[in-house]
Amino acid sequence: MDVVRALRPAAGRTEVVRYVGRQESPAHNVRIEMWNGVRLRRFLLQDDAESVRRHYFPDGGVARQAEPLAYASNLDDLTTALFVRQLEVAGHTETDAARGMFFAAEALARDLAARGNEAGVAALEELHLEVQGRWEARFNVGRVLADGHGRIAGLVDQVLQDAAQCVDPDGLRLKPAHRRGVAHRLVENARAGWVCHWREIAASHEGVVAADVVAAQLTGAQVGDTP
User: Fold this and answer.
1) Average pLDDT rounded to a whole number, residues 19-40
2) Which of 113, 116, 118, 98 is nearest to 186 (CA)?
3) Pick from 60, 79, 130, 131: CA 20 to 30 A from residue 17's CA?
4) Would residue 84 count as lying in a domain?
């Protein structure tokens, strides 16, 4: 059963074309049926509508709940992390929100791995690639306008906005803070940066490893503790 079909009247007969929304002009021998929600659901629940149902309503019509957002009351231990240093070199002196978003994304990645959610881990990596691609496009265009310190005006804000607006990969529903945190994870993992010489900054970095800080926060250990 086709819920919506292409308009192509057959010679000598009338095709029935079903629409859920706006009514079209009855030209070319086409009869239009308008369905309400009750009737539409009845059709979609039929056995021969299974492929349509799976395609448009993969979760059975029930919205998937967003992954929880992990918080930490004190993230001072992230002050010397690479992603924070990159922000500061780019002229961003306030980094509390960035540290919180990094924490949320890192905690999510660890939770998915700990649960053995391979599909979720793969989906999150897909999002990392998507955000990295958007950063790359912004960086390549913006670097020709960089100032004498290698700073690219607006790069951080543009990429974070792009990340927040990314479509969630299949099987994973995130909050905007998760997606922005993914951008900071890319910088922390030396896959992106905020100034022209970001690779040199990453190579010379001697601060804390941000992932270790988050792991310690999640387990209640102190940064630097050995198992």
Assistant:
1) 63
2) 98
3) 60
4) yes
**In terms of domains, do 134 and 155 share one?**
yes
Residue 162 contacts residue 134 (beta carbons within 8 Å): yes
pLDDT at 171: 85
- Whether 201 shows a pLDDT value over 60: the answer reads yes
Collapsed DSSP state (helix, strand, coil) of residue 42 = helix
What angle (nearest 5°) sits at the alpha carbon of residue 139, between those of residues 203 and 145? 105
Select from 174, 220, 226, 175 the least CA-distant residue to 74. 220
Alpha helices in 115-197 (DSSP H): 118-142, 155-164, 176-188
| pLDDT band per the 50, 70, 90 thresholds, residue 44 | confident
Q: Which two tokens stand for residue 98?
A: 């960035």
Q: Euclidean distance between the first and final Cα of the chain, in Å?
A: 60
Residues 101 and 203 grouped into a single domain: yes
Does 106 share its domain with 174?
A: yes
Residues paired with residue 151 on neighbouring β-strands, in sequence order? 195
pLDDT-derived band at 4, boundaries 50, 70, 90: very low
| CA-closest candidate to residue 133, choices 177, 174, 191 | 191
Residues 90 and 47 in one domain: no
